[in-house]
Structure formats: C-alpha cells, structure tokens
Amino acid sequence: MSVMPDFSLSYLTAPKMHPSEVLRIAAKTGYKAIGIRILPAAPGGEYFPLIENPHELPGILNTMQETGISICDLEMIRLNADFDVNQLKGFFEVGAKLKAKHILVAGDDADTSRLSDSYEKLCEACAPYDLTADLEFMPWTEIKSIKDAYKVIQGANNPSNAGIIIDSLHFTRSDSNISDIAKIPNHLFHYAQICDASGTKPATDAELISDARTNRLLPGEGGIDLKSIFTSISPNMPISIEIPNARQSQMSPTAWAQLCMDATKNFYKNIL
C-alpha cells in the first residue's frame, strides 16, 4: 500500500442532518464522498426522506456540483422474510439521480435459501441503475460473518453487481479471520468501513448493537488490529469513516468529522 485512499463520510459519523449540510462538511474536512440514509435501519429509525420528498433532489445535486463531493453509498436495505424488491423502485431512482455507487444491505432472513433468492432479485433490480448491492455482515444478523456473506452471494448465482462490505468492527466481533479475505474474489470488495473499538467483545447482541451505534473509537484508540485488515484489501478501495460515538454530541458536526478524518489519515500514514 503506497497511496492514501479516498475517504467517505459515513451517515453515522454525521447523522440527522440535511444531505447538503453533510456535503459541505465533507468538503471542508477533506472527504471525497458521503453516505446517505434514505431508508431507516430499523422501523422508526432516523433517515432522510428523500424518496418521499423528491423536491429536495435539485438542491442536493447543486450542492454536489458546488462541492465536488459524490455519494458513495445509500443506506439501507434489509433482506427479511417479507422482502419485496418491487417496493424499492423509488430507492433505485433516487440513487441513480444522485449517481450513488453502492447500496448497504443487511440480511435478516433465517431461511438461507430465501435470503439468497431475495439478494439475487435485489442485485438484478438495481443493476440497471448502476448500483452495487453490498452485504454488510453483522454478528447479530443472519449474515454474521464474511463467510456467511460470501455464501449468500454464491447462493444467488454470483451476481455481477454483488458486493461485501468489510466493517472493521463487525469483522473483529464476528467469526471472521484475515485469511478469509483472500478466499473471496477481490472484485466483490467495493468499499470498506473503518473505526476502532475496545478489544473486549460484548457478551450480548444488545451490547454489540449499542457498541456499534454509540461507542466506536477513532483509529488508534482501541484494540482492533486495523493494520492487518486494511493491508489485506485493495489500496484503491474507498474507505467510509464510520465512527458514531457519544463524544460527537459534545462537538460540532464539522469538528467531529475533522477529528475522525485526522485520526484515520494518521493511521494510514503509519501503514503506507
């Protein structure tokens, strides 16, 4: 690895704001892209209702042009037992208008065959919009590890726009190993997510979820072997900086985004 990757400002690092505001923060603090959550992560969860309010799109597109900041990923689609891809046309259309690249996808269906079938349908439906469907494995979901994610893709007949997200927190907290990365075709890795965390794995799913949503640490503050993870993936891959932490409420969104960027750049300077 010899070149600093491009960095994207994850939704959870700058949540609950208008996308145009996040775009301006990203431009001020050295990011190349941002993530936008246009569907909630869970029923009743926070998101920006862009599908429901398409009149917001022109302003966001203007801000993208003014700042030069692009959209890395759209959050999020959950593959559950009741998944219906026909309900997602508006999601795909917004993604295409934003020229987004990737969709963050979670798997909640315990029926592995149906889960792969739903994923195959999702990939087929979003491909005409030039979107990849990137599975984020999380130890409390039905896609618990990087190996599980690859099995879903194989069961879906290896769609051309399939993908897997390596989130350093979930990677470390799941049944995933550095050796697993080399066993998966490199073209499935489109972007990754970075943060640090305590070296002690929480004992329950509730604690895992709480840690992931409110207690991620800046690179270098925790016990994750970030060097092994991020030297095992393509150096050209965009890196989404995802560091939600209670401390961010005590700072301005711009100051927190800058702190996260500076810590991540310092980590990369040490491994380049």
Q: How would you describe this structure to a colleague?
A:
The chain has helices at 19-29, 57-67, 89-97, 112-126, 146-155, 168-173, 178-182, 205-214, 226-230, 253-271; strands at 7-9, 33-37, 70-79, 102-107, 132-136, 162-167, 192-194, 239-241. The chain has a single domain, classed as Divalent-metal-dependent TIM barrel enzymes (TIM Barrel), CATH 3.20.20.150. Helix 1 packs parallel to helix 2 (57-67). Strand 4, helix 4 (112-126) and strand 5 (132-136) form a beta-alpha-beta unit. With 272 residues, the protein is an alpha/beta fold.
**SS field, number of helical segments:** 10
Query: CATH top level?
Result: Alpha Beta
Number of domains: 1
Largest pleated sheet: 8 strands, parallel, barrel
| Percentage of residues in strands | 15-25%
What structural class do you assign from the helix and strand content? Answer: alpha/beta
Approximate shape: globular
End-to-end CA span: 5 Å
Trace the largest sheet across and list its strands: 1-2-3-4-5-6-7-8
Give the SSE string: EHEHEHEHEHEHHEHHEH
Overall average pLDDT: 96
Q: How many DSSP E strands?
A: 8
CATH homology group: Divalent-metal-dependent TIM barrel enzymes
User: Which architecture does the CATH hierarchy give at level 2?
Assistant: Alpha-Beta Barrel
Radius of gyration over all CA atoms, rounded = 17 Å
Low-confidence stretches: none
Q: Could you please say which CATH topology applies here? A: TIM Barrel
